[in-house]
TrEMBL record:
InterPro entries: FmdEsu_dom, tRNA_methyltr_O
SUPFAM superfamilies: FwdE-like
Pfam short name (any one): FmdE
Residue span, Formylmethanofuran dehydrogenase subunit E domain: 14-138
Top-level taxon in the UniProt lineage: Bacteria
Species the sequence originates in: Desulfosporosinus lacus DSM 15449
Protein name: Formylmethanofuran dehydrogenase subunit E
Length: 146
């Protein structure tokens, strides 16, 4: 029997590990697909500009089909979890800003933690990132297209 992998499983497999950063990207990617009327199944595509390098980028490559190789995944390093998503026919563009309370979840701990403690902290962060109300997760703004 062949069981198809869920989008979440596909993202984890591609990324190589489960972490709060990929959870963040997964949630952002799902929101972007909904807002822009695109999907991972259709190769309709979104172009993404991220304003920081992080694990989150790999989720966009699977869920939004925005790949680095095709140049529809760009990074401008500003150390900000702010993301522009635009659909390929250029009719709509959104800006998503992740709330700072959420980013505290993915920040490194101030004290050194044991591997066990790190795992517990990561699982809790993933639970929050994937489960929190959208209004507590991020702000979505429509961007005027010139
Ligand atoms: Zn990661």
């Amino acid at each position: 029997m062949c069981i198809e992998k869920t989008p979440w499983e596909q993202v984890i497999e591609f990324h190589g590990h489960t972490c709060p950063g990929i959870a963040l990207g997964y949630r952002l990617a799902q929101i972007a697909n909904r807002e822009l009327g695109t999907s991972a199944a259709l190769d309709s595509g979104i172009s993404v500009t991220a304003y920081t390098h992080s694990c989150a980028l790999d989720a966009f490559q699977i869920i939004n089909r925005a790949t680095y190789g095709r140049k529809n995944l760009l990074v401008e390093e500003k150390k900000l979890h702010v993301y522009h998503f635009q659909n390929v026919n250029m009719s709509k563009k959104i800006l998503i800003t992740v709330h700072s309370e959420i980013l505290e979840q993915i920040a490194d701990a101030e004290e050194p933690l044991s591997p066990r403690e790190i795992q517990t902290k990561n699982l809790e962060a993933i639970r929050i990132i994937l489960g929190v109300e959208e209004s507590s997760f991020c702000k979505i703004q429509n961007v005027q297209i010139m």
